[in-house]
């Protein structure tokens, strides 16, 4: 009885989570009136039609730029965040120096501030250095992530000290220990951070909307909002664009799900 109840609850939660996505997919494939839903069965396409996926590129030529810009932001954003978070977390986890605890406490304190609180400061700074309306301006504020530093610090803390001592006895330098011993042992945490960073950059909306003016520089999230205003009378095209925006995140999670689970649970049990 308890097992059946658990399965029922899990199926209900899965239906609630997957419902909006399935509705978007159904709407994008619907050839008839998408707003004429008489029953639950009508959530499935009454007239199967895939023309919306090709039509959205024809009616919005800038969509390819939205995808390219988002790919650029995700690739370099993830790469930069992994490098900086790893370099900052290693000394906070494995080295002893005065004020280390206060530095970590100060970093964690910044997580209590909403991201919107930094928009004005970041905007003025970007304008002063002449990077307004560039993709570089979108990347800079997220180059260093406190969450990434914290996650990698926890991953470094659970690496046995004996491995580090053995490498030093063999004459390994600090850089060698960091690159060849510590980093490979924290690959699950790196995969988790990469997934979180990818999703954050892929869905970034508020900051690109503020700092970008040229439409060809828009990432996909801002481009979809523009597309929704452009095609407010044709919801099929908006749904098709939204589905295409979700697919890369789903694929990435399926590829990195093992690393994601290991990285999330790293340090939970000692």
What do these coordinates show?
The protein is 70% helix and 0% strand. The protein is mainly alpha-helical and 270 residues long. The chain folds into two domains: 1-49, no CATH class; 61-235 and 243-265, Orthogonal Bundle (MetI-like fold). Helix 12 packs antiparallel against helix 13 (235-265). The model has no long low-confidence stretch (mean pLDDT 82).
Topology:
Layout: H1 2-28, H2 51-59, H3 63-94, H4 100-109, H5 119-128, H6 135-139, H7 146-157, H8 161-169, H9 174-185, H10 187-202, H11 206-211, H12 220-230, H13 235-265
Helix pairs in contact: 1-13, 2-13, 3-7, 3-10, 3-12, 8-9, 10-13, 12-13
Name the quaternary structure: single chain
Architecture (CATH level 2) name of the largest domain: Orthogonal Bundle
CATH topology of the largest domain: MetI-like fold
Determine the fraction of residues in helical runs and give it as a percent range. Answer: over 70%
In percent, how much strand structure appears in the residues? under 5%
> Cα-atom Rg, whole angstroms?
23 Å
The domain count comes to 2
CATH class value of the largest domain? Mainly Alpha
Average of pLDDT: 82
Treating each run of at least 4 consecutive H or I residues as one helix, how many helices? 13
Could you give a short account of the major beta sheet? Answer: none
Number of strands: 0
Q: Which spans have pLDDT < 50 for at least 5 consecutive residues?
A: none
Alpha-beta content class: mainly alpha
Taken from the alpha-carbon principal axes, the silhouette is: globular
Q: Between the first and last Cα atoms, what is the distance in angstroms?
A: 35 Å
Any idea what the CATH superfamily of the largest domain is called? MetI-like
């Amino acid at each position: 009885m308890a097992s059946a109840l658990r399965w029922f609850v899990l199926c209900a939660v899965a239906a609630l989570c997957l419902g909006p996505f399935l509705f978007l997919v159904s709407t994008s494939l619907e050839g008839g009136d998408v707003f004429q839903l008489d029953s639950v069965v009508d959530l499935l396409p009454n007239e199967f039609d895939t023309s919306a996926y090709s039509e959205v590129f024809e009616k919005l030529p800038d969509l390819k730029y939205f995808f390219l810009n988002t790919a650029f932001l995700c690739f370099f954003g993830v790469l930069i965040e992994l490098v900086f978070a790893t370099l900052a977390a290693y000394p906070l986890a494995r080295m002893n120096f005065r004020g280390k605890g206060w530095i970590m406490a100060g970093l964690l304190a910044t997580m209590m501030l909403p991201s919107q609180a930094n928009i004005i400061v970041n905007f003025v700074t970007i304008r002063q250095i002449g990077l307004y309306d560039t993709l570089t301006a979108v990347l800079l504020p997220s180059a260093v992530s406190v969450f990434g530093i914290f996650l990698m610090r926890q991953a470094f803390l659970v690496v046995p000290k004996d491995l580090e001592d053995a490498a030093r006895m063999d004459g390994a330098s600090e850089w060698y220990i960091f690159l060849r011993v510590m980093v490979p042992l924290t690959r699950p945490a790196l995969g988790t951070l990469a997934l979180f960073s990818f999703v954050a950059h892929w869905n970034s909306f508020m900051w690109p909307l503020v700092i970008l003016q040229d439409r060809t520089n828009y990432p996909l999230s801002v481009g979809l909002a523009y597309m929704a205003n452009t095609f407010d009378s044709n919801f099929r095209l908006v749904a098709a664009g939204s589905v295409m925006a979700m697919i890369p995140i789903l694929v990435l999670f399926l590829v990195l799900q093992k690393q994601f689970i290991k990285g999330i649970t790293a340090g939970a049990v000692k």
